[in-house]
Amino acid sequence: MNPDKINKKGILEGTVSILVNVLLFALKYWAGIVSGSVALLADAWHTLSDSLTSIIVIAGVRLADKKADREHPFGHGRWEQIASIFIGFVLAIVAYEFIREAYEKFRSHEAANYGMIAIIVTVISILVKEGLSQYAFYIYRKTGISTVRADAWHHRSDALSSVIILIGIFLKKWFWWIDSLLAVIVSLILFWVVYDIIKKAIFSLLGERPSSELISRIEEIAKRTAGRDLYLHHFHIHVYGSHKELTFHIRVPEEMNIKETHQMADEIELKIFKELNIRATIHAEPLG
Fold first, then answer.
1. Domains and CATH numbers, the chain
2. What is the per-residue burial (b if ≥16 Cβ within 10 Å, else e) of 152-185?
3. Percentage of the chain with pLDDT > 70?
4. How many Å apart are CA 125 and CA 76, to the nearest integer?
5. Average pLDDT of 77-87?
6. What is the average pLDDT value for the chain, to the nearest integer?
7. Most buried among 84, 85, 119, 217, by the most CB within 10 A?
């Protein structure tokens, strides 16, 4: 996909997320005030924090879209990973606040007064947030933008926390402390999401081995282009947002001269770029 189209899709996902989350926050916050539920109020702030992460998604895509310059010859694509780590820290702060508020409410023996309003708002939240999550995951599959994936998981965690709250609403008459417990469970879900987002962003920054599926695709392209087996090895990939740099070695017959080898490597690099949108650099060495 064209990089401009990729960035436009990322910005569109962030914009839709901001608009929907602000409206959903207002609805959930009102329901939390009416019912006196700290879990619903925490869930409302969880939703509003989605808008913050969506702003970070848009900023990350904008920064990552800056063209390469002398100081950054591979572009600014790793702003996506940096933005993902920032999203993770924001979520961690939100999760900690949920636990603190739940403890205070449990210690003071406060119980939430759930009603039909809380049930309706919670069901709406589940449906809307899972819809946003599916939309964000769809955009991620199309673009590969890591911050969009982080945003999708944030939507999913919000939907799951609303499911937990809905279950708790029906258990409230047996357990006065259920609201505090629900807030803690929502926080633990958030902490898991934080771990997953930050781990993947850091692994990408540190550098990863290309997946076996990608290596198989490259081997197939190389064999098809050269018309022979080239014994590919020493794969290294560097990801800069939508810009990817790949290096690997090929072994060629000793009778091939430098000009023939160079032309073949150029053709393979061009095919890899056209089919996989990856800039490849090939090192050739004699077979055996």
1. 3-206 (1.20.1510.10), 212-286 (3.30.70.1350)
2. bbbbbbbbbbbbbbbebbeebeeeeebbbbbbbb
3. 76
4. 36
5. 71
6. 76
7. 84
Task: Determine the Cα–Cα distance for residues 87 and 25; give it in Å rounded to an integer.
Answer: 18
CA distances (Å), origin 245, targets 32, 156, 214, 285: 49, 32, 13, 20
Quick one: CA dihedral 100, 192, 237, 245, positive or negative? negative
3-state secondary structure 3-54: HHHHHHHHHHHHHHHHHHHHHHHHHHHHHHHHHCCHHHHHHHHHHHHHHHHH
Distance between CA atoms of residues 161 and 40, nearest Å: 9
Q: CA 254 to CA 260: how far, in whole Å?
A: 11
Closest CA to 244 of 217, 212, 207, 216: 207
Which tokens sit at 170?
């029906």
Cα separation of the two ends of the chain = 39
Q: Does the pLDDT of residue 53 top 70, yes or no? A: no
pTM: 0.56
Residue 256, number of CB atoms within 10 A of its CB: 15
Residue 263 has pLDDT above 80, yes or no: yes
Burial 52-61 (b: 16+ CB within 10 A, else e): bbbebbbbbb
Furthest C-alpha separation in the chain: 84
Q: How many of the other CB atoms lie within 10 Å of CB of 220?
A: 11
pLDDT at position 108: 64
Q: What pLDDT shows up at residue 264?
A: 87
* CA–CA distance, 126 with 272 (Å, rounded to integer): 42
